[in-house]
Amino acid sequence: MKKIICIIIILFSLHNNAQSKGIFSKDPIINLENFDKQKMYFGFYLGFNSYDFKIDYFNTPQKDIVVNGTSGFNVGVVADLRLHEYINLRFEPGLYNTQRNLTYFGFTKQLDAEREIKSTYIHFPLLLKFSSKRLGNIRPYLLGGASATLNLSSNSKSVDDNLQQRFRVKPWTTNYELGFGIDLYTEYFKFSPSIRGVFGINDEIIQDNDPNSPWTSNIDALKTRAIFINFTFH
């Protein structure tokens, strides 16, 4: 909640500053008029994330696990290649930190029923950006593409499993991503807030050593779901 309040305050401050610079005024002074005509430009982003798991079970009616996500942070860089007046190719590698808490039904001991999944990801998205026509100093856009993610906290090489309180997932995952945002042209830089959904394609779970494990044997597939809120500066 504190992070959401901070986001609202930041956006409100930027909105007021943008109004003072004429970004949202009726007849604004055009800022950075030739910025988007560059063949390539770079930037960086900061943001927040909320990760979840989509779990498919072998026994469909039985839902064994509750997933509770927490807010994490993102930081990364942007390389933007202009393909067309309204289409850009973007590479946005970044570091993403998050945590998901799993609660299992059917256990009497808290040590067995709960798992904290702390993850540090290196995220490699390749995206197409479809921009609308620029209106004064604002320009909405849509984003879509694919990404690969390396989980530095996967525990994939561990011989221990949930019997020793060690939850294991595969180190690499692939995803598709969809989102939207808006470019705001200030006097000195372009600011781009955006929101994006990330949908894992491949199964990430590493089954426990015991084929009848109560933690993994009923899981057919475990796939990442996430929402990113990024604030990009060019």
Describe the protein's architecture and organization.
The chain has a single domain, classed as Porin (Beta Barrel), CATH 2.40.160. It has two helices and ten strands. The chain is mostly beta strands. The longest helix has 20 residues, at 2-21.
Task: Itemize the secondary structure elements and their pairings.
Blueprint: H1 2-21, E1 40-57, E2 65-69, E3 71-82, E4 87-91, E5 94-104, H2 110-113, E6 114-131, E7 138-151, E8 172-185, E9 190-200, E10 219-233
Antiparallel strand pairs: 1-3, 1-10, 2-5, 3-4, 3-5, 4-6, 5-6, 6-7, 7-8, 8-9, 9-10
Number of strands: 10
Percent of sequence in beta strands: over 45%
Number of helices: 2
> Sheet bearing the most strands, described?
10 strands, antiparallel
Provide the CATH top-level class: Mainly Beta
Rg over CA atoms = 21 Å
Quaternary state reads: single chain
Low-pLDDT sequence parts: none
Task: Sum this structure up briefly.
The protein is mainly beta and 234 residues long. The chain contains two helices and ten strands. It has one domain (2-233): Porin (Beta Barrel), CATH 2.40.160.20.
